[in-house]
Amino acid sequence: MDTKLHHAIAEITEIASSFGLDYFPMRYEICPADIIYTFGAYGMPTRFTHWSFGKQFHKMKIQYDFGLSQIYELVINSNPCYAFLLDTNSLIQNKLIIAHVLAHCDFFKNNVRFSNTRRDMVESMTATAERIADYEMTYGKEEVESFLDAILAIQEHIDPSIIRPKLPDYNMDEEETEEVVRKTPYDDLWNMDQPADAKRISIPKRKKFPPSPEKDLLLFIQEYSRELEDWQRDILTMMREEMLYFWPQMETKIMNEGWASYWHQRILREMDLTTDETIEFAKLNANVVQPSPTSINPYYLGLKIFEDIENRYNNPTEEMMQQGVKPNSGREKIFEVREIESDISFIRNYLTKELVKQEDLYLFEKKKGNYEITDKDYENVRDQLVSMRTNGSFPYIVVEDGDYGKNGELYLKHGYEGTELDPHYLENVLPYIYQLWGRSVYMETVVDDKPTVYAYDGKKVSRKAI
Amino acid sequence: MRVSEKEEKQFVISQENWSLHRKGYQDQQRHMDKVKEAIKDNLPDLISEESIIMSNGRDVIKIPIRSLDEYKIRYNYDKTKHVGQGDGDSQVGDVIAKGSGEGEDGQGKGKQAGDQAGKDYYEAEVTIEELETALFKEMELPNLQQKEQMDIVTDKVEFNDIRKKGLMGNIDKKRTIITAIKRNAMKGKAEITPIHNDDLRFKTWDEVVKPESKAVVLAMMDTSGSMGAFEKYCARSFFFWMARFLRTKYETVEIEFIAHHTEAKVVSEEAFFSKGESGGTICSSAYLKALELIREKYNPVRYNIYPVHFSDGENMTSDNEKCIKLVNELMDISSMFGYGEVNAHSRYSTLMNTYKKIDNPKFRHYVLKENRDVYQALKSLFRKYETST
C-alpha cells in the first residue's frame, strides 16, 4: 500500500479532528475508474439492477474517457463511512478528496435531516438487490423491469418528514357499512305525519379517502392499490426505504457541498504542500467551486454562505451584539448551522442582500427563444432559490382522492405555486401511475393560469380545463 | 480482499480486485438493448422519415430516439425562473444562453433537445446504417438463383506467395539475399556472396476469382393523374430501401425507372418521382417496356431481375388479362415480381382483383394504406421463399 497516501490520510484525519469535525470511522477504497463510476451511477456499491443506472454509468464513463470530468468524490452515508478514491488520482487530488469527504461524513453524522437515515444502508441495499434479483428469476426480468420503471417514475413522491405520524388507518369497509345504512329517497313518505324538523334526514357524507391530502404517494399506493402482488408491494417498500435514505442528501445539497468545500480548503491550508502541489490544488479547487451563469454551483454557493456567516459572526454588528452574538463566534455558529438547517432554511436565513449583490446572483428565464436575465432583486432571487429547492426540487404532489368518482380512481393534485409541470413528462408518467394503481389516474395542476386536469384511463391521456 | 493497515481504527485503506465487477457494463448493455428495441419499435415510422428518403442516402442522417427518457413529474424548464451567477456586472436583459430555437416558448412540449441551459439531455441517435441493420434483419432475398456460378470473373492477379522455383523475372531479390546471408553466416562468413541456386526465392501469384453478382430493379410506376404525392412518396420510400437492401446482397444493383400511363417509357429517377401526367392507365405498357429492357440490356443469365410495380390499382379493365399474361412472362425470367398498391381508402381495385388469381410464389404483393406501411410492404415482399406454397 502507498505509504505516502497513508501518511497523508493520517495527517488530514488529525487536522480534521483538531478542527472539531466529528465523523464516522472511515473506509477508503481505491478503485479503477469503471468501478468508481459504477458506484457513482448507482449511488451505492451494490444496488438493484436497472437500465437507467447503466445509462448513467455510460454517460459518466464517457466523460471520464474524454477527460471532461473533474475529480470525482464519492462518499457513502454509512457507519463505517465508505469513500472511494480513483486509482489514477495524484496524491494532491487524493488529499483534496479525503479532506472533502471527511467533512461530508461529519455532515452526515451531525445534520438533523440525516438523523433518521439508516447507517447500515450498504448492507440493506445489497439485500434489496438480491431480493429483486430473486424476483427476476421467479417472475421474469421483463416483468420486474417494467414494475421498476413505474416506481422510478414517481419514487421521489414520499413524505420525508423527520417526525411523521404513521399513515392513518382509513378503513374502507367502514365507509361501505355507512352507505348501507343510508336511507332510501322514499323514507320521507313514512314520516309524512311527523313534525317538519324531523323530516330532515341526515345523509352521512361520504368519508373522504384519504381524510386529508396525502403527500406520500408511494406509501399510499403500497397500502391501497388493489393491483399489486405481494412481491410488488415488497419491492415498493424497499424502494421507498432507499428514497427515504437518499432524501436528506437531496435537501441539503448546497449546504453539504458548501460545508465540504469550506473544510477541504481549511484543512489543506494546514498541510505542508510542495510548490507543485499548491499550484495543482489551487487549480483543482478553482474548478470545483467555479460559478456558472446558467445554474447554481452548490459547492460555490454553499461555501460562500458559510464563509459569510463565519465572517458576520466573527465581527458582529451592534444590532447582532444586542441579540447576544459574541465577537469571534463565527466558527461556533457555522457548526450550529450545519447541524440544524437544510438548504431551504439555510438560504432563507443566511443568503443576505449583500451576498446576493456581491456574488452577482440573478434570475433568468426563457424570453423569445433565449435565456435572459430578468430580475436582480435580492428577495426574488432568494425566494426563487428557496422555492426551487423545496421538496428536493420536485413538484409537490398529493393524493386528493383515492376513491375518485366512487370508482376507486386516483385523483392527484399538484400544489401549484407559480411553476408549471412539464406536460410531455407528465403525460408519460400518468400511465406508470395507472400501472401501479390499476384504475384511471387524474392530475390536477395549472396550465397558463387555468386549473387543468390531466387524466389517463388506460388507453389515452386527456387534458381539460376545469 | 487485502486490508493493509489499521490506525487507531479511525480509517482503513483497502484496494480490492474489482476485475469481476461488471454490473455497470451489464446494465449499460441493457440500456443499449433498449435503444435497439426502441429503434425496432419505431421502424415503420423511421423508415418512411422524409429526411432519409430525400437525402438519397448520401448524407448520414441521425434520428433522435427519445423513448429512453426516464420520465418523472418535473417542472417545465422553459416556464420557470432560474437562478444564475454572473461575474459582477450582469444586467437585466443580458442574454446568457441561446434557446433551442424551437419557436417561442412553445407549448412546452418538453421535447426540445440541445444546448439548453442547465439541462442534462440524453438522446440516442441512429444512423442510416443502424436502421439498415435493424430493417434488413427482417428481410430475406426470395428465390435467389445461383447465377453467380455462371458469372465467374477472374478479377486480378495477386502476388501473395514465395516459392523456391519460379520465373527469373519474378525473383524476390530481398528474400534471396537474406537467405544467402543466413547461409553464409552459418559458415562464419558475413558476406552476401556467393549466392547459390538454392538461395533463390521467387514471388508467385494467385489468380483471385471473384464471382460477380448483378441485380437490376425494374421500378415501374403508374404516373397517371390518379397517383398523387402521397402515393408517389410511398413508392419512393419503398424503392429507396429496396435498392439499398439489394446492394447488401449483390455487388452491383442497377435501377431502371419505367414510368407509364397509357404508354410507358424509361425515365430518370427525378422525372420518375416528380412528373405527373394526365390520362388513363394501361399497365401492360409498363410490362412490355420491362420485357423489352430485359431483352436489350439485362440478360436473365447474368442478372437477377426484380420488376416491381407501384400503382393505385386503377387500370383499364380490358387491359387486365394482358397484364396477367405479361406478369407471368416476366416471372419466368425474374427472381421475383412485386406489386405494391397504394390504396389509402380501400377502393375497389380492378388490378388487385385480377392479380388475386395469380398463383405463383414469385408474385408478391402488398396494399399500402399509410406511410408506415412501407415497412410492412418491404417485409412482405422480401419474406423468405416458402417452399411449401
TrEMBL record, chain A:
Source species: Psychrobacillus lasiicapitis
Top-level taxonomy: Bacteria, Bacillati, Bacillota, Bacilli, Bacillales
Name of this protein: SpoVR family protein
Domain SpoVR-like C-terminal: 395-446
Superkingdom per UniProt: Bacteria
Domain SpoVR protein-like N-terminal: 4-392
PANTHER family hit by this protein: STAGE V SPORULATION PROTEIN R
